[in-house]
Amino acid sequence: MKRIVKLLLLIALFSPFYAFALFEECKDLFPGQQIPTTTQVGRDLCFDDFAIYYSPLDKKPIYTVERLNGVKLLAPHPRRTNRFYEEARLPYSDRALLSDYRDSGYDRGHNVPAGDMTNPMGMAQSFSLSNMMPQARQNNQGIWAKNVEEPTRLYAKRATGDLYVFTGSTGKLGTIGRGSVTVPSHLYKLVYDPSKKKAWAYWVENTNEANMMPPISYIELIQKTGIDFHLPIEIADNTKKYFSKTPSPKKQILGGWYPVFFDQYAPGKVNEIIASINNGKVASLQIQYDRNLELAKQIGTEIESQTSMSIRLIQSSPPESTSVSYERNRVAVIIYSK
């Protein structure tokens, strides 16, 4: 079984990127470890306390997921950092930039709220721009914060066990910045309570004048977003409908880029990259690093010595923090396939 899993991972790694997500490092954040399916192409990003399915085209989340726990929410919270930063794990051309939001008239609206974070690491990570969407300012600070985020936390504090929350946005009102970050027309937050096998969703227009409407059903949200969240829920006749039984959507190509991470020099990974280049599968690649320039150079030198590929080294750092430690020695090889 382990050999099959490894084979599937290798196929996913050295193939063009498709409209499905693996979330191998953070499946526990999803109810029953069931990953939503959608025809929207994107990139899965794992954080300590939440996960993001990110759209390089729109440069904002397609959806985020977090697991809330009432006991943790009732404990003292870390200080809000307010230190927004560009997501270093994404290729530069696919990231939202700080400059995109500057003077745009829109807030950097959290999908996973900073107010849900219960430790310093999660708080710092929640300010990644990969977690942001252009949100109408009064909407973000008013109706969304007071009538969506806060009631969700209050419910989680009363719930039995964990609560799962998906947040995202859809539609297009335009774009902001040189990077053309999509401004969504509608925002949503899906709440799933496993103890009751029930789910509901908040659906809000992304305007300063938006009015709060009653929550919509889980099925309505699927119809509006085209995302199957694979939640086992109870229908009115007390029978269960498992949406995970529906067939997966047709896979679509994103355009062929994927990351290979190195915490130390790994000859096997390097040789696989070299083989992929020599087999004509790679158009270009870049190596991103924070502090471990030596490892980045070692990987780049080895690849250049055995291929005709020219390597770009790019330094990309998360924000400094006295209370949070990042994997600063990690090196990411970003590969663009043909």
Name some characteristics of this structure.
25% helix; 7-stranded antiparallel β-sheet; 60s Ribosomal Protein L30, Chain: A; alpha+beta; Extracellular Endonuclease, Chain A; 8 helices; 338 residues; 2 domains; 4-stranded mixed β-sheet
What does this structure look like?
- With 338 residues, this protein is of the alpha+beta class.
- The protein folds into two domains: 18-245, Extracellular Endonuclease, Chain A, CATH 3.40.570.10; 257-337, OmpA-like domain (60s Ribosomal Protein L30, Chain: A, 2-Layer Sandwich), CATH 3.30.1330.60.
- Helix content is 25%, strand content 28%.
- The chain has eight helices and 17 strands.
- It has helices spanning 2-13, 70-74, 98-101, 120-125, 137-158, 218-225, 267-278, 293-306; strands spanning 43-46, 50-55, 60-69, 106-110, 132-136, 162-170, 174-176, 181-183, 186-193, 198-205, 216-217, 232-234, 240-242, 257-262, 282-289, 312-315, 331-337.
- A seven-stranded antiparallel beta sheet has the order 1-2-3-6-9-10-11, with helices on both faces. Strands 14-17-15-16 form a four-stranded mixed beta sheet, covered by helices on one side. It has a two-stranded antiparallel sheet with strand order 4-5.
- Strand 9 (186-193) and strand 10 form a beta hairpin.
